[in-house]
Write a structure and sequence with these properties.
With 183 residues, the protein is α/β, with parallel strands linked by helices. The protein has a single domain, classed as 3-Layer(aba) Sandwich (Rossmann fold). The chain has six helices and eight strands; from the N terminus they run E-H-E-H-E-H-H-E-H-E-E-E-E-H. The strands form two sheets. Strands 1, 2, 3, 4, 5 and 6 form a six-stranded parallel sheet that branches. It starts with a strand and ends with a helix.
Length: 183
């Protein structure tokens, strides 16, 4: 039997009062029921990343972040839409790891916002393409109006489970294929 993929569920927001933690934990719960990969929450807030380009690259958080990205085979990005795009913290995290750490890996995107975070997901797709990360087609979206109680408590409807299943199926297929490319 081949070794299971290591998939990071990356929380893309660091602001106080964020809901990405709830969305990410729900995604991990759904993923863990599959028993097809090793899933873990990766919270960019835990890495204390300096603003990209402001240091010589010697901060401990940068090395720890690069190590985490290197050890993962694939990613699920939990993306909040801020001003029609991804958060500055997520963009900074993507830029802060060596480009080669991302190359030839797979990613899925789960987004949320007033329009389901669709605009942020589209921006992220362009960034991932530049990093040579293949993104899956299925992209679960969550509405602040329908999937959150009082805009703060994540309560997704069962209708999202089918998309989550398809997303994880695609991510595992692409992740496995690209792992063979990395050797």
């Amino acid at each position: 039997m081949t070794e299971q993929l290591k998939i990071g569920i990356v929380l893309g927001s660091t602001r106080q009062g964020r809901v990405s933690t709830q969305v990410g934990e729900w995604a991990k719960k759904v993923a863990d029921e599959r028993n097809d990969a090793q899933y873990e929450i990766v919270d960019i807030a835990d890495y204390d990343l300096p603003f990209f380009g402001t240091t010589a690259g010697t901060e401990p958080g940068l090395a720890k972040w690069a190590e985490k990205i290197n050890e993962l085979d694939a990613y699920v990005f939990v993306v909040a839409e801020y001003n029609h795009s991804i958060t500055g913290a997520l963009k900074n995290a993507l830029d802060s790891a060596p480009t080669t750490a991302w190359n030839n890996k797979a990613a899925s995107i789960m987004s949320y916002g007033s329009t389901g975070g669709a605009r942020a997901a589209e921006h992220l797709r362009g960034i991932l393409g530049e990093l040579m990360v293949a993104d899956t087609r299925v992209h679960p979206t969550f509405s602040l109006f329908l999937d959150f109680e009082n805009f703060s408590t994540f309560n997704p409807g069962d209708l999202h489970l089918e998309n989550m299943t398809m997303m994880f199926d695609q991510l595992n297929s692409w992740g496995t294929a690209l792992k063979s490319v990395r050797g």
